[in-house]
Amino acid sequence: MLARLTAREQQVLRWLAHGKTDREIAGMLGISARTVQKHLQHVYVKLGVENRTAAVMRGLELDPGPAMGRTEIVAGPMSDACQAP
C-alpha cells in the first residue's frame, strides 16, 4: 500500500515517523507547510486513516524497516544519569 503513495508523500510520511512537524518537514523538503499538509491529506486517504499518528502506525505496519525510519535499538549499559537513585 505504501507503493500507492507518491515519492513525495513517502518522504513526508517518513519525516512524520521521525516526529517532525509540518514546518520542519517543509523546511527540509523546500516546500511550504501548507503543501506538507496537502501531501498528508493524500496520505491519509490512500492509507485509509484519519490522523498523523494513524498514518505513521499504518506506515510502520506496511514497511517496518528503515524506509519508514525505524531503526534497531541496541541495549547497552545505562549511564549513571539513567539509573534509579
From TrEMBL:
Source taxon at top rank: Bacteria
SUPFAM superfamilies the record matches: C-terminal effector domain of the bipartite response regulators
Keywords: DNA-binding, Transcription, Transcription regulation
MF annotations from Gene Ontology: DNA binding
InterPro entries named in the record: Sig_transdc_resp-reg_C-effctor, Tscrpt_reg_LuxR_C, WH-like_DNA-bd_sf
UniProt-listed SMART domains: HTH_LUXR (SM00421)
Signal peptide boundaries: none
Pfam families per record: GerE
Keyword DNA-binding recorded: yes
UniProt entry tagged with the keyword Hydrolase: no
Protein's recorded name: Two-component response regulator
Organism placement in taxonomy: Bacteria, Pseudomonadati, Pseudomonadota, Betaproteobacteria, Burkholderiales
